[in-house]
Specification:
Mean pLDDT: 92
Order of helices and strands: HH
Radius of gyration: 15 Å
Structural class: mainly alpha
Distance between the termini: 19 Å
Number of strands: 0
Length: about 60
Amino acid sequence: MKIVVIIVLLAIILLMGQALTRLIRGASHGLLLALTWRVGLSIALFLFLILAGFMGWIRPNA
C-alpha cells in the first residue's frame, strides 16, 4: 500500500517538473497535457485513499 502511494506521489512530482520545463520552453500543449495528468493522478490518489479507508486497508492515527 505504501509503495503504491509513494510511486503515485513521485509521478505527480515528476509531472509537475515536466510542466515547469514546458512552461519555460513555451510549449502550451505539452504544459496542458502534463498538468491534466497531474490533476488526474491527484484525484485518483485521493479517491484511492478514501476507498482504502472505507475498506479497512489503512487505519487513521486517531
